[in-house]
Design a protein that fits this description.
The chain is of the alpha/beta class. The chain has 8 helices and 7 strands, in the order E-E-H-E-H-E-H-E-H-H-E-H-E-H-H.
């Protein structure tokens, strides 16, 4: 491992890992950590190059972040954990569950996507334009290089074929907002492609965990405690 993750740890019981979205930090889950730590041992991580976790030298990709997560679990002697990932964090959790199924107990994918086509065009187009601009200036500016890496995650990753999801063995909840930036049919496709997955839409946009925490937390805890 070329990095050490910054993380917030709280509670006791079964491990529950929280993975934030693109350009964010574990602070995104400020309304979840207290609620979930009453019943679980919560670890909220800052992904490589996000928040207080260093960028390191390895590739800046969803698959690398999934390998980073494996390193974190090993370092903290966590055999199996529940994973809750939001947005790009959901993509990390999804890839991790495909590559390391024996390390995942339950899987919660919130606002995840298989590829760029799963994002509404009104949202994706500015991301693609911003990515092109940032790449043009990446050689001249540190900020542009960082921007290009972050936007690149949303343009080039995770590229998981839906049929791959049939290999996920963890009990899974797929959850999104009714006005999510991820297309509704794309969220449905993810749920339909994972054997036995539950699907939930909550009133709200992409950021339901942050903006509608009571409803979101209730639905997640209900799923975890079944």
């Amino acid at each position: 491992m070329d990095i050490r993750h910054f993380f917030v740890e709280q509670g006791q019981g079964k491990p529950l890992i929280l993975l934030h979205g693109n350009g964010e930090s574990c602070a995104y889950f400020k309304h979840q950590i207290d609620a979930f730590s009453k019943r679980y041992h919560v670890y909220a991580l800052d992904t490589r190059g996000h928040g207080q976790t260093p960028r390191g030298e390895r590739p800046f990709t969803i698959r690398q972040f999934a390998e980073d997560l494996l390193g974190f679990l090993d370092e903290h002697q966590i055999g199996r954990a529940h994973l809750l990932g939001f947005s790009d964090g959901g993509n990390i959790a999804m890839v991790f569950a495909l590559v390391h199924p024996d390390r995942v107990d339950r899987l919660i994918l919130n606002g995840a996507n298989l590829d760029a086509k799963g994002v509404k065009r009104t949202v994706q187009l500015p991301i693609e334009l911003g990515y092109r601009m940032a790449r043009m200036f990446a050689g001249k500016s540190k900020d542009a290089k960082r921007n290009a890496e972050l936007l690149g995650l949303m343009v080039n990753d995770p590229n998981v074929p839906p049929q791959e999801l049939s290999k996920i063995t963890a009990k899974t909840l797929v959850i999104a907002g009714t006005r999510d930036m991820i297309k509704t049919e794309h969220t449905r496709l993810i749920a339909q492609s994972i054997p036995g997955a539950e699907l939930a839409f909550l009133p709200g946009d992409h950021f339901i965990a942050n903006k509608c925490p009571e409803e979101f937390n209730r639905r997640v805890l209900e799923f975890l405690e079944k």
